[in-house]
Amino acid sequence: MSHILLIEDEQTIADAVILNLELENYTVTHVDTGSLALEEVKNIASYDLVILDVMLPHHSGWEVCEAIRKTSSIPLLFVSAKGNTEDKIRGLKLGADDYLAKPFDLEELLLRVQILLKRNAPAGGEQLEQLTIANKTINFISYEVLEDQEVIAKLSKREVELLKLFYEKKGEVIPRDTILDRLWGEDQFPSPRTIDNYILGFRKLFETNPKSPEHFLSIRGVGYKLILE
């Protein structure tokens, strides 16, 4: 049974969300201020998903999201009356997995929760724990990149998901649309340039010469592929 942390200060909305989540057999813990949410961050490992409002007393949802992402890659869904494109982009850049504007339909909320939990559920079989590219090792458990046993970079959840996809399809060209569908889903609308930025970041981190990559290759008009030694 999945345990959801609901961070929402409007009691009528919280009551409706809690009722519907519990009817779907989820366990829900509710806090109604940014201060209480920050206190709960230390227990984040006990949850499976966070539903987070942006406008909260004491500390904003932005601050809470940043605090969560310092220690956890838990699925996080923003719900907010601040529903313009700029706010959605800000939320996603802070590490949210999805963003739903108020007022929202409860059926849509439940569907998004289901999708996020399913997307982040462990797959069957052996889990990929690390991957070595050039002389650098990616630890998929700690989200760290190591060189000579030293941590040289921390990865975001999205970066880890993209690297896992590259490994899964290593040596194959992955179309841009496949990456967008797999990592962002149908309800989010990043541009192809978004993927380019991730690739540029990987090249700076893993390539000896980022301007002449040997591992993260762009196939013009099609997509990208990962070449391992």
Characteristic terms for this protein:
229 residues; Rossmann fold; Arc Repressor Mutant, subunit A; 2 domains; five-stranded parallel β-sheet; four-stranded antiparallel β-sheet; 8 helices
Fold topology:
Elements (H helix, E strand, L loop, with lengths): L2 E5 L3 H13 L3 E5 L2 H7 L8 E5 L7 H9 L6 E5 L4 H9 L4 E4 L4 H15 L9 E4 L2 E4 L4 E4 L2 E5 L2 H12 L5 E2 H8 L8 H15 L9 E4 L3 E4 L3
Parallel strand pairs: 1-2, 1-3, 3-4, 4-5
Antiparallel strand pairs: 6-7, 7-8, 8-9, 10-12, 11-12
Protein architecture, described:
- The protein contains 8 helices and 12 strands.
- The protein has 229 residues and is α/β, with parallel strands linked by helices.
- α4 (85-93) links the parallel β4 (76-80) and β5.
- A 5-stranded parallel β-sheet has the order 2-1-3-4-5, with helices on both faces. A 4-stranded antiparallel β-sheet has the order 6-7-8-9, with no helix packed on it.
- The chain folds into 2 domains: 3-120, 3-Layer(aba) Sandwich (Rossmann fold), CATH 3.40.50.2300; 157-226, Arc Repressor Mutant, subunit A (Orthogonal Bundle), CATH 1.10.10.10.
- The longest helix has 15 residues, at 106-120.
- The chain starts with a strand and ends with a strand.
